[in-house]
Each structure stands twice: as C-alpha cells, then as structure tokens.
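Contributing new records

If you add data, match the layout below exactly. Sequence lines come first and carry their own label; structure lines follow with theirs. Keep one chain per record. Anything else will be rejected by the validation script.
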Amino acid sequence: MTTGVLLMAHGTPSSAADILPFYTRIRRGRPPEPAQLAELEGRYRAIGGVSPLAERTAAQVDAVRAALEARTPGRYVVAFGAKHTVPLIEEAAVTLGSTGVERIIGLVLTPHGSSMGSQEYLDRAATALASTPFVAVAPWYAEPAFVALLAARVQGARGTVSDRSRVVFTAHSLPERIRETGDTYPEQLAESARLVAERAGLEEWIVAWQSAGRTPDPWLGPDVRDVVRDLAAEGGVDAVVVCPIGFVADHLEVLYDLDVELADVAAACGLAYARTASLNDDPRFISVLADVIVAADGAT
C-alpha cells in the first residue's frame, strides 16, 4: 500500500522577472501599480534580489521525502504544490492522485490554521481530487517536539542580547473579519506562544502581528512595529527578541519585514534586535513533519 503526501506552501518568485506575474496573481489578476511594483522589487533587492523561499521549501520537501523513506521504505510518494507558483496545488494533487496511491495526506507548511490561510490550501487540494481519499492534517503547532525546537531557538536568540530583553512572537496578520466566522487563528497563535514561552522558561512575552496587507479593512493587531516602539517608551527593556512562530522558513516576511524593517525600528528606538533562526530544513524540524504525516496516515 502506498500513501501520497502533498506538502503545500505559499510559493515565491524564483527570479526578478517573476515578481510582476507573481504579484499580479496574488492580486487576483490585477497588475500592481508601477509604484507598488517598484516598492516590492526594492524589498527583494534588499534581501539579495529574490527570496530564498523556493530553495528552502524544495529542501524541506526533499528532506521530508528522505525522512519518510527511511522510516518506511516504499510507502510514501511525496509531492509539492504552491498557492501562487507552479506547480499549483491543484496540478500537484491531480498528478499525485494519478500515481495510484490509496490516499493522499495534505500538510500545509505552516503550523497554525485559518480559513484564509492553510484551510484554503487544503480545500483546493481536496476539490481537485476526484476519487482519491484526502486526509487533511490539522494545525500542528502544539506538537511537543516542535514546541521544544522553537523554545531552544528562543533561548539561543536571547543569549545573544542583554538579559533585559523581551520576547515577541509574531505571525502573519489577517483581516479582522476572520473573527466573525469563528476562525480560531488568533487563539492558536496565543496558545502556541504560551507553549513555547513556558518551555523556554519565559515569565513575560508578547504576541504581535506582522506583514499586514494594505487594504482598507482592519487587520489583526497589534503590529509588531508598534509593540517595539511601546517597549522602548515604557523602559526597562534594552533588547527585543523576535520569534516568527508562524513561519517555518526564510522568506521576504522574515528577511525584510523583520530583519530590515523591524530591526530599523528597534535601532531607532535604542533597542538591540535579535531573531530566532528559521527552521528551514533542520533535521529536527523535518522529523516533526514526518511525525505528523505518519500519525495522520495511521489514523485513517
């Protein structure tokens, strides 16, 4: 018996030439204004020209494939689909289903779930599949090994700055209207931060939001930039340690929104800045992903 595994993520431009079509797709087919495109291109230039996310995600997929093969040779067929770049989720799901696997386990490479985030990925995959059973992996932020890994990252980052630091956990903001639908994304983030903070031995921590879209709608807050400014104004803290708990790889929202933009805010406020190292394809993180996949397979 073989089981298909469909790993899913956001996707990113692979070259400077891909930025415009990528941005247009994100905007549901509406090309960005020249000024909007120029700003995004500038952000990519600030982190080296393109995001490393495509490379990092490919490494994660390869590592998960190898980890599953080592555990149960020949049982799993692993594929990848992206929300905004090829192969798209639907294409990857159909191709994987055509290989004759008995079921497909869908895992989104983000630990938390939301109706506007990972659930959309899972729904797209399920809809694309006709007769192949599809098993969606639920949010996995509370996995003990995942919590322990992030706690170690927090402790490591704190060790690079003063003891008078404050840890701020961040995730990608979403429009406030998700609360009206019963979406538990904000509560998941709060619980996730608590688990990691307590494992890391923190007495105080803050949950904040980052990378909000530029739309008229209100987005989840507080914004992490405002949090850092408030910490500096309150006094008693001389460093901020940021743990982007909602992200599992280096990409624009980490390397620019945090390491450039937020670091500049911290410096302007007189605070030192440190960030937890991204998980990328760390073998301990890959083991967490393999664990949740095997658990989902065994539960079917």
